[in-house]
Design a protein that fits this description.
The protein has one domain: Rossmann fold. Helices cover 45% and strands 15% of the residues. The chain has helices at 16-27, 39-51, 66-80, 103-131, 153-173, 199-206, 215-225, 244-247; strands at residues 7-10, 31-34, 55-58, 85-88, 135-140, 178-185, 188-189, 213-214, 237-240. A seven-stranded parallel β-sheet has the order 3-2-1-4-5-6-9, with helices on both faces. Helix 1 (16-27) crosses helix 7.
């Protein structure tokens, strides 16, 4: 119960990595505010965690919308009296050839991945600063912020920017005992990625460790970074990709 009575917000958590993070936080004693754009997924996720004995509330909505961010913070403070952990997990991937990529697609990727991360961090840090007890910020990056990947120029750009935000915020928030870090997943087996029937076989072949990550691999890393065990780690990114980015063979 290393997160007993801690209060955490996790965005984009209706399924996949985000949901597993919520499950693990709740199982370790945290009160969790679970956000997802899809209202049905958000409510189903929160209900499942509650039925397993955890404390979890659903707050659906677009996590890049400032009114939803405000609602997330208000819910945490109103229901549980504080905020200790904020995890900006929500993000979207819009593949597209560089020569044909549209302004609309570019703007949407930046809105969700960058605006959502920046302004959740801002709101959470303000609350943590006011509380005077410190806190943990965690952003979800990607190996595509480190290695080129075909048709993901805009997405990779957004993820590299998120890592720079974490580094820069060290200057802004460390005086208030707030840590800020990133997790950069590589290929991960989720409901979405496994829609490709060749996904697991392809990434097993080209990952040095012999398989893609699963959601538990990423969630375990996330929980470490928002725990007291990582209190001396800040401004850092941990890559979780089975060694793929050390050799970077293309899946194509």
């Amino acid at each position: 119960m290393r997160f007993k009575n801690k209060v955490a917000i996790v965005t984009g958590a209706g399924q996949g990595i985000g949901l597993e993070i919520c499950r693990k936080l709740a199982a370790a004693g945290a009160h969790v505010i679970l956000n997802d754009l899809d209202e049905t997924l958000a409510k189903q996720g929160a209900t499942a965690i509650t039925n397993q004995g955890g404390s979890c509330l659903a707050v659906p909505g677009d996590s890049s919308d400032l009114s939803i961010i405000t609602q997330l913070l208000d819910t945490a403070v109103r229901e549980f009296g504080q905020l200790d952990i904020a995890i900006a997990n929500a993000g979207i991937t819009l593949f597209g050839d560089f020569f044909d990529y549209t302004p609309e697609a570019f703007s949407r990727v930046m809105q969700v991945n960058l605006n959502g991360t920046f302004f959740l961090a801002q709101a959470a840090a303000k609350q943590m600063k006011a509380q005077g007890k410190g806190g943990k910020l965690l952003f979800m990056s990607s190996v595509t912020g480190h290695q080129a990947h075909k048709d993901l120029g805009a997405y990779g750009m957004s993820k590299a920017a998120i890592e720079m935000l974490a580094r820069n915020l060290v200057i802004e928030v460390s005086a208030f005992n707030i840590n800020v870090n990133c997790v950069a997943p590589g290929a991960t087996a989720t409901e979405r990625t496994l829609e490709d029937p060749d996904y697991e076989q392809t990434w097993s072949r080209i990952s040095p460790i012999g398989r893609p990550s699963n959601v538990e691999d990423i969630a375990n890393t996330a929980l470490f970074l928002v725990s007291e065990e990582a209190r001396q780690i800040t401004g850092q990114t941990i890559v979780v990709d089975g060694g793929w980015s050390t050799v970077s063979p293309s899946p194509y």
